[in-house]
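Example A, followed by Example B.
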Amino acid sequence: MSTATTIERPRLTARLTEEKQHRITVIVAPAGYGKSTLLREFVAATAAQPAVLYRVRSAHRSELGFIRGIVESFTELLRIPPLHEYVYANGTHDLDGLREWFLQAVTPFAGTILIDDLQVATAGAQCAKFVASVMDETGPQIRWIVATRSLENLPIASWRSRGDAGDPIDEHDLGLTASESVRLARASGLAVSDQIIDHLAGLARGWPAAFAFGIRLAAQGIAAAGVATYTRTFIDDLFAEQVLCALSLDQRDLLLDTSLLTRVEPMLVTERYGVDADALLRSLRRDVSFVGIDSSGGYTYHDLFKEFLRREIRKEPQSSIDARVRRATEIIIECGERDGALDLCLDMEAIFPALDLLERIGFMLIEGGYLDVVERAVERFEAAGIEHPVVHAVRATLESLHGNYVRAEELFARAIATASGELATEVRIRLATDRLNRRDTVGASQAVSDCVADGARADLRLSLLTIAACIGAREGDHERARTPLDAAILMLAELREEAHVALAHHQIALVLYLLGSFERARSYATSAVQIAERLRIAGVAARARSVLSAIAGELGNAGVQRQINHDLRVMARTSRDPKLLFFALVNIFVIEIEAGHLAAARSVEAELHQFDPTLFGDSEEALYPAYALRAAWEGEFGVAYMYLRETDAALSPDTRRLLRQCEIALYAVACGEAEEGRRIAEVAVAMFERLGDDRRMLHSRALTARVLLALAKALLDDSRSAMRLLDGVKFATAVQRRAFDRFAQAARAFVRARATGDDRVALPLTRLRDSDLGGYALLIESLRDVPALRTFAEPQSALTPAERAVLERLSRGLSSKEIAAAFGKSRYTIDTQVRSIVRKFGCSGRGEAVYLARRYGMID
């Protein structure tokens, strides 16, 4: 109701204050009983205490939507981790995880959460159960006051039996008393007699909305003397007779159209319709009691009035409904409520506008973490048997996010088969991006091979260019990558929507990173993160941050990289985000292993063991080099080699593959596979020569590769080549110099000791241990015990102490599992050591290895 027909009712605010002995207070009554007004008055009366007022909208009807609405209502009261990032990483189906995320996020808050129109979220039994569980499990520092039109699906009896809630405040409590009816009539400023007031109060029977409307009618000389009572049907008839019929056709259309909005911004509506919306709504506000003004100056319609207007719209032909919905969704999107726009289409059964909107913003809603909104729309279409390429494409994207890649490919194929125009181009781009994320450059190239860019939107043409550039960069053809990249950068000026700019900046940053242009990549990635976080486009922000983290590693800034990932870990723990936590832990584990911080690495590894790594793509690729390096510290070079052998072929960019080749070569030589190590070392040397003075060779991966290859050459008794490699160590940044200068000095000392016996390695190793590359000091220390090449011809000399211990237990008939338990290692590690033993003996299996070991006298 408007301020002119609102009175303070202290008895009700006092009742809410008295109810603070309970954690949950429930207000239940039909529309028009002043529930919303009461909540606002309570917040104003207790302004000194922290309170959050949240009105549930149609877009909040799911479990995720309900949580999203509360989170958005907290504004400045509490800094909550980004929900959209949690959703983008974990999807919408883990309701227990979502509840835990929210409970953890609001733990610091102590105050009242007030919810209006709760019936929107609790209409479905499953969502109602979730809402109740959230309210049940919050701590005692949070009080809930909820207003609803229905108690259906709410566990009122359980709450009351536990003492969590008292008797609901119902329409009997909310109804107007005689004195309140008089005060409300006087507050209207209209000349109405006491006799009419008494008559209207009898008709309204305590219903505040009906009484306020009746006063307006009475002031105009209209009295419903023959009416037994006000009902919704009677009020609908009065709305139609007294409001709509008094308007011109343009005014009527404006009122019906704006009833589809959450709130009416007069200037925006006037610009769109060419009608003075402010004047019309000010006039309505004088004549009826169902138009109000919110705190920011926008107009709002009372639910009774809005529902009446929407029922009027539904009486129109479908073409007219669709036209009104299209106009409304344009305004809603402009106001930043993309989720509400799609839900409005579904609520009004406007199928064709919904399909158009899904094509326009569906993919961006997914990027923003509004998966529940998109899934709800897709499920509605699928249930109706609607076959449309955008439905298949959006479903394919959702399936891919859930890891169902085979199903996603099938749906993408169905979408491509029937799509045309820009939609066909966008679907192919989505498929290509999906394949690129799985490092399938051939498949990505095939996906966009038939795309026609002429005439397409600028954002689609730009995406095609960055995909082509990314394919070229990942395949090592930098010249093929630079031409489309330069064209994409020039095209940025054509983009009009910030969401497209954020995505384009991320795509360009990724290509620049793959090309080794790290400073430019960092600039674009930073811009992408800033825009995407402001627009809450979680997917773009997450991927752009991963580029920033990788750049920090390439530039040798382990401190920055460590801090980024520690911040991510804190965020992930706070938000109960398992994927984010897992990847933060993986990155930290790798950083700590390279730094030689064994205790810190073990602590992180203990957390990693709580996850199933098969659920997280590329986890093995990220962890195996660190596992191999740690194994090498203990002289387990055979284990290190088995972790990494034959894993280099599919890696990109070139520096990443080069580093892996140098790691494999070093571990192969160290474990006695000299010929294999020599072969891979020569492949790495050829790549060093091919890349030459390429700037990428100054960055951290290439520098690490150069030093590791020098160590492998030293083990191959080629000290001259080793020194040449070390003399070629140059630095791109001062940060790199601090660590890599020590790494190179320690490697030089090792090469000298290996070639001449000048064993002055201790001091350089001590200095290296104190750097961010301290883990490589432990590697070099272990390499000092590797025997000369000739001794590998004798299995007894080639076996490491750990392999001897494993062999001895094999001779006693112990299984790999039993040996692993005895040594406190994983079964995989023991099996790897057994394979290394078998290879060194040149035999067929563990039984023959035991036989030969006895023959050589190595075991009894």
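Example B, a separate protein, is given below in the same form.
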Amino acid sequence: MQYAKAAGFHTIAVSHSPDKDQLIRDLGADDIVRDGAGLAGAGGADIVLGTSNSMDATADSIRGLRPDGRLVIMGVEAKPLAVSPFDLLTKRIKIIGSQQNGREYLYEALAIAASGKVRVVTETYRLDEIGRPTSASRRDRSDFARSSPCSSFLRR
């Protein structure tokens, strides 16, 4: 979200967890919605960065894509992504997979970081606490696998 905001996008986050709202706002989200219908109600998105590890949540986000929108899948789950051909045809959406951008974009990302427009969020632990879960995953792992940290939705 920080990079999207630094690049000048109106940034909308979707999170099923209200307890993450303050962090999401601190990272630069202009709006927060709970699902694809909420995204559509907020005006929709040209690009959805699907960072969730839930294919159900990722598929739901398609409801919030504008015509000619793009879903960039960046999260993974060992489950197929359910997409309606009706959405593909009527909205003319594109679905793209991306692990990372190419090396040439690293320079741009580092320049944005050096400008101070993004910040690192860290947690520090003693060595004897190495097995302790991070705050983002303190819940039961099965609950964490079903929840999305958040996905970013972008529009200019």
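On Example B: Confidence is low (pLDDT under 50) at residues 137-150.
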